[in-house]
Amino acid sequence: MHIQELILRLQRFWADRGCLIGQPYDLEKGAGTMNPLTFFGALGSKPWNVAYVEPSRRPADGRYGENPFRVYKHLQFQVILKPSPAKVQDLYIESLEALGIDLSKHDLRFEEDNWESPTLGAWGVGWQVVLDGMEISQFTYFQQVGGLDCRPVSAELTYGIERICMFLGGYDNIFDLVHGEVKTDDGVFPVTYGQMRQREEFELSAYSFEHADIDLHRTLFDAFEKEGWRLLKDHGHFLSAYEQALKMSHTFNVLDARGAVSTTERPGIIKRVRDLACGCAKAFLEHEEGSSTDSPDGTDSKSKMQGGAK
Amino acid sequence: MSATKTFLLELHCEEIPARFLEPLAKDFSDLFKAMIEKEGSFSLRWDWLAGGKNSFSSLFASGKLLGAGEIREIRTPSSKTEEVKLFGAWAFSPRKLAWAISGLPDQQPDQTETQVGPPQRMCVDEAGKPTIQGLKFAEKWGVDVSAVRFEQPAGKKEPCAVVTITRKGRPTIELLAEALPGLIAGLHVPKAMRWGKSDFEFVRPIRNILCLFGEQVVPITVDGVTATNTTWGHRLFHRQNPEPIKIATPEAYEETLKTAGVVVSVDKRRDLLKQQLDDLAGKVGGRVVTDAELLDTLAEIVEFPKIVRGDFPATFLELPKEVLVTSLREHQKSFCIEDAGGALMPCFLTAANRMDDPAGFVKAGNEWVLKARLYDARFFYAEDRKLALSTRLEKLKALTFQRELGSYFDKTERVEALAERLAGTLKVDVNQAREAAKRAKCDLRTLMVGEFPELQGIMGGEYLKHEGADEEVWMAVKEHYRPVGAEDAIPSTPLGCLLSLCDKLDTVAGCFAVGLIPTGSKDPLALRRAGQGIVRILWERGWATTPRDLIALALGAVGARATKPGPETTEALLTFFKDRVAYQLEQVGYAGSVRRSALATGWEDLTDLKARCEALSAFAEDARFASLAQSAKRIGNILKDEAPAEAFAAAVLQDVTEKDLAERLKTLEATTEQTVLLAALADLAQPLEAFFNAVMVKCEDPALRAARLSLLHRLRQAFLRVADFSLWQ
Q1: Beta-carbon separation of A141 and B364 below 8 A
Q2: Where in chain B are the domains?
Q3: B642: Cβ–Cβ under 8 A, 6 or more apart, which residues?
Q4: N or C, fewer C-beta in 10 Å, chain B?
C-alpha cells in the first residue's frame, strides 16, 4: 500500500468514528504527542477526539539515509480519544482491518509498554501492539500530562506509518516504499520515499552528528527557555510559551545527537524543558477551568487569570 | 450441614502485563480467604492449590486433588459446630484472572450467643416484677422481657439476667455480593491506572465480570461493570461469534473457555509450548537453546499457544552466538536452535497467540522483523570493531559508576590495583591481571552493549579476541561478571576468577564505604549477589585468602572516597561476609547441624571451614555423634562458671575411664588432619559416656576436681578445632 493511501484510509476511518482530522504542528518535534492538539487536548474535562499525521524528528536516529530501517524523521499517525471509549481496543483493531489487514490470518498481541516523556512531564500505561512479531503501534492510557492528572483519561494510539507500509508490502528498505503516484499527460510516475526523502535524511543526519553548531544550540536553548518563561509569566500565554518548550526539546535532541550532553548534565536539561511544559499545562488548565465557569461572558475568569499573571 | 457450592470469579480485562498476573492471583486468594474466615463463621479447613500443576482442573477432578498446594488448617475463633473444607485454585491468561473455590456452604450457619446482664436483684423488684434496668436489658438484645432468665454464670457471685440470642445465618451469596467489590478494589496493584471517566484504579481496564456461586450469578458491580454468567473467549473466536459465551457452572469454566480458544491454565500453556518447541527443533535436526524465563514469558503472553518456526539468512551466523541468542530473545521473544555440536542454526522458534498460521503471515512477519534486528546487530558489531577496545578506556571517565565512588574509569583503576596486589598471592600472571582489569569495563562504551546491556563482558571478550589479545585475557574479560546468579558457574580460568573477584570486591567494599548497605529485602545494587560471587570463587578455587584481608585491601583502594569511618565499614563488611559464607554452606547442601557447629568455631578461613564441613558431613550419619553432642553440651554446662588450668597432673586421676580419656587426649592433640581427628572424636563418644557414668566431676577432693575440669577443658579445646558439637542437633 502506498504511504498516502494508508494515511488517507486512517483519516477516513477515524473521521467516520467521530474524530476531528487535525494537521501536523509546524515546529520540529520528536513525537505526535507534542502537538498541542494532544498535549493540551489531553488536559481538562472536555471531550476531545482528534487524529492527525505528525512528522517526527529524532536526530540521534539519523543514519544518513543508509540504514534501511532507521531514519532521522518518520511519520506518526496519532489518535487521541478522550475519554477513552470502552471498546477502544476493538476500534483500534477495526482500523487495522480498514488498512486491509485480515486479522483472521495474523497474530496480534498487546504487550506491556508503558510510555513516559520526561520532557513533557507526561506518562501513561499501555502496550506496544505487535503484529506477527512486529511493533506497529503504541497504545497508551494517559495518566498525566504536563505533570497534571488526566481526568478523564485519554487513549492515545500511535501508528508507525512507514513501518506498517513496509510490513504490509514486505519491503526490505524504507526508501523503496512508494509514497504515491504522480499522474500527468505523459503517464503515471510512482514516487518513492527515497526520492522524496533520502537526500533530506543525509543532510539532516550530517547536521545532527557533524555540522550543528554546539555553541549556537546551547545559546538557543537558553534563549528559548528565557523567552518561554517571559511569555508565560508576563503574559500568561501558554500556547506561545509551549512553542518555546518544543524548540528547547528539539535543540536538546540536536545537542544530544552531537554528543554535547554529558550523562550528568542530561537530567538537568530535561528538567528545564519539563518545567516550562508543566508551567504551560498548568496555565492552560487554569484558563480552561476559568472559561468553563458559569460567568456568562467569561470576563470573571479572564480577569482572574490576567490578574494572577501580573 | 448445609449443601456446598463452588464459587467462580473471572475478571476479564484488557491485556494485563504478564509480570502482574500471578501476584494478583495470589493477592486476591489471600484477601478472599481472610474475608471468608471473618464473614463465614465456619470452622474452616483450607486446601489452597497455589500454582500447583494444572491446579484449576484438578480442583474439579472428581473430588480428587492432584495439586501440591500447601495445606493449612484454620479455625476461626467464633467456630461453632460445622467444619467446612474448602479448595481453591486460580488461573490466568493475558486477559483473564480467575479464581474458583469449592466446598462453600450456601448458607452461613445460625449462631446462638448468650449475653449476661446485671445481677438478678437489680432486674427484678421485690414483687417479682421487672425493674427499668431489667426492661432495658431485654430491649438492648431485642427480646421480650419474658425471655430473660436468671442464672449464675461462671465467675459471677450471684444469679444474673441472661438471654440467648439467635443470629440467623445469611445466604453465602449475599455475603459474597457484599464483600467482593471491596476485595477487588483492595487488590494490590503495583502500577495502577485509571481509564475513561472513572477514578477507579486497576492494573488494566476491567471489561467483563463473570461471577458464579453454583449456577447463580453473584450480583456485584465494579466500576460500572455488572457481573453475569458470560465471558469472552479468544479475540479470533469472537470474529465469528459476536456474542459472549455462557459459563453454565464453575465446573464447566475451563472446558468452555477452551472451546472459545483460550487455554486458561498457564501451566498447560507452558507444557503445550514446550512440547511444540522440542518437536519443531527436532524436525530440523537440532535442539532448542533452553531459556526457562523466556518460556514462562511466552506462556504468560498468549491465550492459545502456538510455536512458529522461522528462518534467517545464514550470513548472520557470523555474529557471536551470544549476540544472536540475546537479540532473538530480547527483540523477538524467540528461541535459537543449535545443532548437535552446539553451533546455532539459521532458524528460530517463537510463539503466536493463535492456533495456526494459515497464510504463513506469522512466520513471514517474524522473519522480516528479525532480519531488521540482525541487520542492526551486525552494524553495531562492525562499527564497534573499527576501533580498538582500549580506546574506550578514556570514555569511561564520562560514565558514572556511583556518585561518591566516581566513574567507571576510577573503578577500573581500583580494580587494576587490587588485581595487581592479589595476583601474586593467588598465583596469577600479574601482567595479564593488569591487562584484563584495564579492559574489563571498556565494552560499556560500545554500541552493542548500549543496545544489549546484558552482553556486558561478553562483548569485551569477543572484541579482544578479535584484536588478537591473549586467550587468558579475553576469556577473563568475557567471564568476569560471572557468576551472575546461584545457577551460574564461576569464571572458568584463574585469571577470570581473579578479575571477577576484584570487580565485585570493589563494588561491595566501595558501596559499604559510602553507606550503601543492603537492609532487609532492599538490595538495589545487588551487593548480596556480588558478595556471594566472591565467596563462591574463594570456596570453589580454594584460594588462601580471607574476607578480612580482602576487605582491608579493597578499603585501601577506595581510600579517601569513603564517607564512613573505616573500622565501622570493616565490621559491617565482616558481618555481611559471614552471612554470605553461611549461605554458601547452605547452598552446598551441608546439613543444619554441620553448618551450625562448623561455623561456630570460625568462618574466615574458608579452606579450613570447607575441610571441617566435609569431614563433619562424612561423619554426620554416625550415631556416635549424637552421643558426642550430648557430652559436649554436658561439658559446656560443667565448665560454665569454671576457669580450669591448662595443665593437670594425670597421676591424680583415679578412675579407669578418666585415665583412658587422658590417654586419648594426647592422641587428639597430636592429630592435625581433620578426618583423622573426627574419627578419633567419634571414638571418644563411648569413653565419654562411660566417664560421665563412672565419676562425679565436681568431687570433694580439690586436686582431683581440678584435674578433671582441666581434662574436660582440654577435650573441649580439641573438639572446637573441628566444630562446636554443643550446637549439633
Answers
A1: no
A2: 4-107+171-259, 111-167, 266-384, 390-588, 610-727
A3: B709, B713
A4: N
